[in-house]
Design a protein that fits this description.
With 186 residues, the protein is α/β, with parallel strands linked by helices. Helices cover 31% and strands 20% of the residues.
């Protein structure tokens, strides 16, 4: 069940440049406004993750990623759209450079998924667009599977932790290239 008050509060924090933690389909995630460079920089510092690696963006629905899907052929687009919502992250070319470099890292594509987790969907809907979605763990540590582990990793350095349950999956999303169909993470 989605607690609307908690979602509003989380989005208020995000709009102010905060980094939050929230449950996703399989692991706890960290998120922020992908267009706020200071927020993304802080998130990367919390994770001890180099900006060059890039980050995944999450959306509530296909319309929130429409501007990226226009870079695909009809066949590629159909393949991507038919896999959503769900645990499928796709690398999609950002030919119009609409996504900041601090999200894409050293890549020309952006990693995007449309979630089926009710809290993630509610966050993106309330925010009105894409959010950063990266596992809640420092680099080289296991992703957090509980709120307790999130707190152990980050404690008071997070601005907000959205209460909720994981979506029941046992592994993070599959990552595939929308152009080549190569699987980068299964």
């Amino acid at each position: 069940m989605v607690n609307t008050w908690q979602i509003r509060r989380a989005v208020d924090y995000i709009q102010q440049g905060a980094v939050i933690a929230y449950p996703t389909e399989a692991v706890w995630g960290l998120g922020c406004d992908p267009f706020n460079e200071a927020a993304v920089t802080r998130l990367l510092e919390l994770k001890k993750r180099p900006v060059e690696k890039g980050l995944i963006l999450v959306a509530a629905n296909v319309s929130q990623v429409e501007h990226l899907l226009s870079n695909l052929t009809a066949e590629q687009r159909s393949r991507v759209e038919n896999s959503w919502p769900g645990p499928n992250t796709w690398l999609i070319p950002d030919k119009g450079n609409r996504i900041p470099e601090w999200i894409k890292g050293k890549h020309s594509s952006v990693a995007v998924r449309v979630s089926d987790h009710p809290l993630v969907v509610a966050l993106c809907e309330r925010f009105g667009g894409l959010l950063v979605s990266t596992s809640a763990n420092p680099a080289a540590c296991e992703p957090a599977l509980t709120k307790t582990k999130v707190n152990a990793y980050f404690g008071s350095r997070l601005d907000f932790v959205l209460a909720g349950d994981l979506g029941g999956r046992t592994s993070p999303s599959v990552i595939r290239d929308a152009i080549t169909q190569n699987t980068l993470r299964s």
